[in-house]
Amino acid sequence: MTGVVTAVAAGTVDIQYTINTGCGSPAFSMKSLTVDPVANAGTVSGTTTLCIGVNDTYTTTGDPGGVWSSTNTMVATVDPMTGVVTTLSAGSADIRYTVNMGCGSPVFSFQTLTVSPSVVMNTNDTGAGSLRDIISCVGDGATITFDGSLTGQTITLTTGELNINKNLTLTGLGALNLVISGNSASRIFHLQPGKTLTINDLALKNGSSLTDGGAALVEGYLLLQNVIFENNLENGLPKSLTVTSTATVEILGNVDLKN
Fold this sequence. Notes:
Blueprint: E1 11-19, E2 27-35, E3 44-45, E4 49-51, E5 55-57, E6 59-60, E7 67-70, E8 76-78, E9 84-87, E10 91-99, E11 107-116, E12 119-120, H1 131-137, E13 142-146, E14 153-156, E15 162-164, E16 168-171, E17 178-181, E18 189-191, E19 196-205, E20 208-209, E21 216-218, E22 221-230, E23 233-234, E24 237-238, E25 241-243, E26 248-257
């Protein structure tokens, strides 16, 4: 005779077999059964699109004690215990949470992360692929480059200056090949105190402000290499840069002032 047992939940239960015939009936025997929990990796949640050089914390609804991993550590790494993701390069990676305890383990769930390139793709003032959007998105210390299709074009700012509140490098396509314009309506850059901005191979034109004007207000460390300044004004008078007493400007290569 057999007894079919169906486990419905984790825990311990006594399985009893009883005989009700014969001398001294009823009689029974008993076996203790432990039901292990089913491993549950849950649902992984996190930002699905990030820029290079930023962090995000992924979470899961699964069992505690699991391990986080990345399927492409060239694109993004993840702390195995905390789920903190660090993006490294453009591409895609699955951020996994694996549970190695319980019935049916190991089990895992994942969220696909896409890391956007730090390449300016258009001359738009705002929106995906714009210089302003990428400056806002990338992490501290990032290098921003420009797609070759922008050769000979001008990025015109229409919603004000670009605020630089992190350490960045902008590497253009050549000072004669790519222009960032303040549209004769605003400065081009405002570099915040304690931050470093390196500008290579760009032209900065038509920056304008009533005060602290020209192409840039520099309160941090500005490094220039192969840059052209042209038609930048403060209160209508030619001025390329406003440099505060705590700021530093270093020039490498050719910097041409054409005001």
